[in-house]
Design goal:
There is one protein chain. Strands 2-3-1-4-5 form a five-stranded mixed sheet, sandwiched between helices. It folds into two domains: 9-209, no CATH class; 224-372, Reverse transcriptase/Diguanylate cyclase domain (Alpha-Beta Plaits, 2-Layer Sandwich), CATH 3.30.70. It is an alpha+beta fold. The protein is built from eleven helices and five strands, in the order H-H-H-H-H-H-H-E-H-H-E-E-H-E-H-E. Its EC number is 2.7.7.65. It holds the Pfam family GGDEF. GO terms for molecular function: diguanylate cyclase activity. InterPro entries: Diguanylate_Cyclase, GGDEF_dom, Nucleotide_cyclase, Rev_trsase/Diguanyl_cyclase.
Amino acid sequence: MQAATATAPGDRQDVAARQATFTKHALRNVRIISYSYLIDGAMLGLFAFLGTVHWVPVAAYTLMGLMIGTFWTVVFQNGWSLGFKDPHLPMTLSLTHQVLQLVGMLLMPQLSFVFLLVLFIVFTSLAMRVALRQAVTACVTVCLGAGIVLWGVPGPMRIPDANIAEQVVSWAFISLTLWQCIWIGSFNGAMTALLKKRSRELAALTRKVQHLAQHDELTGLINRRTLMTVLADEQRRSDRTGKSLVVALLDLDHFKAINDTLGHPAGDRTLKRFASTVQQLARNTDRFGRYGGEEFLAVLTGTTVADAHIPIERFRAALAAQGWDEIAPGLEVHFSCGLAQYRSGESTEDLLKRADDALYQAKRDGRRCTRVG
């Protein structure tokens, strides 16, 4: 049979949602850029009104800016950039704006400071969105382009200040540029805050995943894999310090009958109640987890096999005192236990096998008892 390669409906919807979000953000940025060209064109128009420059280059600059905005609107609206590694195309988008500022310097050398200010804003916006290597490449390109333009422009370049009107308009343009820098800074701050939020969410998700990987989903106890790691660590510690170590395998008696007669939900509630009861009575230095099915493993540190009977019987007494009637009237929960004390240099498998053999001996001896392997 040929393997199916079609994308699942849920995956297609997720991809479509991400693409819609990208398009929305990209078009918003293009609109902001277009508005900026309109504002810049209006400011340049004031200089034309004062006679500092002619109307024609002002109109040409503004029209080219709007054409660039229209072009990128079409690109993003039709999703033509989605096939690229970074669909925002920051380097290409920034290059078109940089070239326009250099063209503006050539057309209106009297207002070179205006285009240098805008060029600075364009480059700053790019530098915040690309990797260091790309930012350096863009910087070299801008520096070379600005140098060629400055060398090729006839006559001096200055800030228009021949009269009070030109001084006011120049001051207004500089002030506007500063406000644009503040806007860029606020955008960067918002992005930084968003990244911090995403980092916190990722850290919380990572902790949750780690918890799920180390714990049993039903009982909340550490799972078999974690138990094996803990036991191996305790064996090495016992080898170094000479302190005794005991493992106890606990198996709920007749648990299959609970599942068969009362149903699996009742069985699950029984396992959770059993796990919670034993966990609360265990010492802080001991580790208790779900070994598999209705089997549980306790790693008792600094304890001999003779002393291990004391906590095991404490577990029995606590379980007998539990109100199991809320799960099922007349329900009683008991367990069989197999103990094994660690022998220096013994493998984990051999230690657990002795505890398992002792557990099965307890089962053969009528259950509800403890045997030593």
